[in-house]
């Protein structure tokens, strides 16, 4: 087994490094916040009554991932959020969350809102699957 490399001094190829590992920081003392992941599906009458589009209740037919993160004693201005194709990286002065997402997401179509009364950050991300264009209406 031999790995070809551009530089003979490198000990691994970039293909060998798992996606999102650049965000891992095991020495960071900040607490991991509580969070929940929900899957959201856009359903119309043609789905509910007639089953015309072939959607089912599984996550494979969902269009969005909604992540609700509890951030007590946090101000909106203290939140730093970075979204990559398969990684959500959230940092505040007291909390840190590195979340590997179950599906790749479209980083340009996401949105986030901070519910200050509930102290929850709600992040909605559009799932990006390879063959979604076949089923789009």
UniProtKB/TrEMBL annotation:
Domain of life (superkingdom): Eukaryota
GO MF: dynein intermediate chain binding; protein-folding chaperone binding
GO CC, any one term: cytoplasm
Pfam families: PIH1_CS (PF18201)
Annotated PIH1D1/2/3 CS-like domain residues: 32-127
Swiss-Prot/TrEMBL GO biological process terms: axonemal dynein complex assembly; flagellated sperm motility
Record family assignment: Belongs to the PIH1 family.
Name of the protein: PIHD3 protein
Organism (species): Mohoua ochrocephala
């Amino acid at each position: 087994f031999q790995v070809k490399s551009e530089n003979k001094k490198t000990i691994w190829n970039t293909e060998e490094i798992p996606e999102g590992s650049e965000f891992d920081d095991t020495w960071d003392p900040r607490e991991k916040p509580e969070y929940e992941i929900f899957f959201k599906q856009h359903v119309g009458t043609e789905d509910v009554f007639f089953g015309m589009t072939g959607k089912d209740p599984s996550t494979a037919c969902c269009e969005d991932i909604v992540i609700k993160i509890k951030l007590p004693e946090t101000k909106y201005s203290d939140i730093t959020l970075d979204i990559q194709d398969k990684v959500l990286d959230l940092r505040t002065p007291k909390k840190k969350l590195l979340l590997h997402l179950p599906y790749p997401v479209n980083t340009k179509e996401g949105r986030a809102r901070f519910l200050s009364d509930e102290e929850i950050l709600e992040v909605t991300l559009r799932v990006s699957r390879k063959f979604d264009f076949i089923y789009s209406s």
